[in-house]
């Protein structure tokens, strides 16, 4: 359980940091941030306020249809993502990390970090965010279509809503929408699952 908690906590923390990095990059938000930002514009809310409200509404729905996906990581995600994102953005801008080169590095690093973060807390199986639950539930219900295609479809819908709501949509958004699904699967197989299944070393008794 301790290893699962480590994966879940690390995943949520890294996800919040990655969202802030993509906001600093200003090459377009990730798809769900686009969706949340569009809704925030309509409701005149800040991201730190709008994110937990929208996520909480989604969680109520998934508590009814697929509560297996909800857990301690879901709660951490609900309260920490928005705050971590805003702190990361504020810290980065205060350090003057807003040149074109820095922004490009933030975009690439933020995308990779977000996929790694998602893989970590998916594998921990201690709950996922309301948005992540959408593609996971569809993949479970319709197994003939791989998860990565459900994720790409959900991301593209969020991008369209974000575009309609005047959220920041750009090359970073398109890259994220097209590659998050495959990259999450890659990190699950190469990083998070090996970490979870790593066996503890057996003590050498030959010295006794």
Question: Would you mind describing this structure in some detail?
Answer:
The structure is a single chain. With 208 residues, the protein is mainly α. The chain has helices at 2-25, 31-43, 47-65, 72-94, 100-124, 130-141, 147-164, 171-197.
Q: Counting H and I runs of at least 4 residues, what is the number of helices? A: 8
The major sheet is characterized as: none
The secondary-structure class comes to mainly alpha
Subunit organisation of the chains: single chain
Number-wise, the strands total 0
Radius of gyration: 18 Å
What can be said about this structure in brief?
The chain is mostly helical and 208 residues long. It is built from eight helices and no strands.
Summary tags:
8 helices; globular; single chain
Task: Give the secondary structure arrangement, pairings included.
Blueprint: H1 2-25, H2 31-43, H3 47-65, H4 72-94, H5 100-124, H6 130-141, H7 147-164, H8 171-197
């Amino acid at each position: 359980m301790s290893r699962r908690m480590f994966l879940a906590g690390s995943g949520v923390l890294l996800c919040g940091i990655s969202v802030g990095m993509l906001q600093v990059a200003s090459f377009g938000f990730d798809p769900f941030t686009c969706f949340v930002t569009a809704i925030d514009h309509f409701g005149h809310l800040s991201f730190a306020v709008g994110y937990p409200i929208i996520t909480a509404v989604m969680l109520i729905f998934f508590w009814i249809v697929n509560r297996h996906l909800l857990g301690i990581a879901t709660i951490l995600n609900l309260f920490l993502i928005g705050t971590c994102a805003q702190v990361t953005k504020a810290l980065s801008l205060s350090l003057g990390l807003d040149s074109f080169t820095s922004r490009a590095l933030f975009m690439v690093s933020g995308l990779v970090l977000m996929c790694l973060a998602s893989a970590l807390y998916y594998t921990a199986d201690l709950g996922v965010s309301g948005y992540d639950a959408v593609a996971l539930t569809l993949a479970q219900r319709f197994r003939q279509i791989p998860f990565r295609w459900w994720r790409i479809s959900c991301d593209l819908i969020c991008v369209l809503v974000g575009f309609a709501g005047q959220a920041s949509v750009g090359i970073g958004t398109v890259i994220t929408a097209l590659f998050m699904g495959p990259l999450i699967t890659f990190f699950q197989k190469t990083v998070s699952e090996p970490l979870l299944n790593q066996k503890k070393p057996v003590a050498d008794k030959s010295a006794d």
